[in-house]
UniProtKB/TrEMBL annotation:
Family matches, as InterPro entries: Cyclophilin-like_dom_sf (IPR029000), Cyclophilin-type_PPIase (IPR024936), Cyclophilin-type_PPIase_dom (IPR002130), Cyclophilin_A-like (IPR044666), THUMP_dom (IPR004114)
Keywords in alphabetical order: Isomerase, RNA-binding, Rotamase
Organism: Candidatus Terasakiella magnetica
Domain PPIase cyclophilin-type stretches: 18-160
UniProt entry tagged with the keyword Membrane: no
Domain THUMP residues, every copy: 1-26
Function: PPIases accelerate the folding of proteins. It catalyzes the cis-trans isomerization of proline imidic peptide bonds in oligopeptides.
Reaction(s) this enzyme catalyzes, per UniProt: [protein]-peptidylproline (omega=180) = [protein]-peptidylproline (omega=0)
Pfam families linked to this entry: Pro_isomerase
EC number(s) reported in the record: 5.2.1.8
Family in the record: Belongs to the cyclophilin-type PPIase family.
CDD domains: cyclophilin (cd00317)
Name the record gives this protein: Peptidyl-prolyl cis-trans isomerase
Length: 162
C-alpha cells in the first residue's frame, strides 16, 4: 500500500487488473487538476474506454464517445511545464490547438521527451503501474486504435473514498 500524502490531490483509477494511484500536480497544472477532480467526482470517467493505446508509448482515455473526438465540452487553456514525461506521467490530450484540452488524457508507458513542454502534465502514477501496462494495446497500423478496449471501471478522488 502506497503512502498518500494529500488525499485531496490523489486519484484512484480502478482498472480491470487493479487500482492505480495518481499523485496530482496542482503546482504544475492547477486548472487541469481541478477539472479532472471535478469530472471524477461527477463520475464522468467511470466506464470510459482506453480508445487509443500504443505499446511503448501511452494509453489514452477520457472520451465518452470512445472515438477520440469527444469530451466533456469544456476546453482548458494549456498549462505547459518542463516536467519530463516519464513512465507513469499523466498528461492531457489535445488537438493541434494548445488550448484545446478537455477531458481526454493519456498515461505514459515510458519516457516520451517529445511531449515535454507541449502537453499539460497534471499527475504522476505512484502505485499500480503494472495495471497500466496491462491495458489492452491497440493496432500499431491504426494509430493505436483498440478493438474491444479496456475501460476505466471507476475514477475517484482519494479524499472521497472511505
Amino acid at each position: 500500500m502506497v503512502d498518500i500524502k494529500d488525499p485531496e490531490n490523489t486519484l484512484y483509477l480502478d482498472l480491470k487488473d487493479g487500482r492505480v494511484t495518481v499523485e496530482l500536480r496542482p503546482d504544475l497544472a492547477p486548472n487541469h487538476c481541478a477539472r479532472i477532480k471535478e469530472l471524477a467526482r461527477e463520475g464522468f470517467y467511470d466506464g470510459i474506454v482506453f480508445h487509443r493505446v500504443i505499446d511503448g508509448f501511452m494509453a489514452q482515455s477520457g472520451d465518452p464517445s470512445g472515438t477520440g473526438f469527444g469530451g466533456s465540452g469544456k476546453n482548458i487553456d494549456a498549462e505547459f511545464s518542463a516536467e519530463p514525461h516519464i513512465e507513469g506521467s499523466c498528461s492531457m490530450a489535445r488537438s493541434a490547438d494548445p488550448n484545446s484540452a478537455d477531458s481526454q488524457f493519456f498515461l505514459c508507458f515510458d519516457r516520451a521527451p517529445h511531449l515535454d513542454n507541449q502537453y499539460t502534465f497534471w499527475g504522476q502514477i505512484i502505485d499500480g503501474m503494472e495495471h497500466v501496462h496491462a491495458i489492452k494495446k491497440g493496432s500499431p497500423f491504426d494509430n493505436g486504435s483498440v478493438e474491444d478496449p479496456d475501460a476505466i471501471i471507476k475514477m475517484q478522488v482519494a479524499a472521497d473514498v472511505e
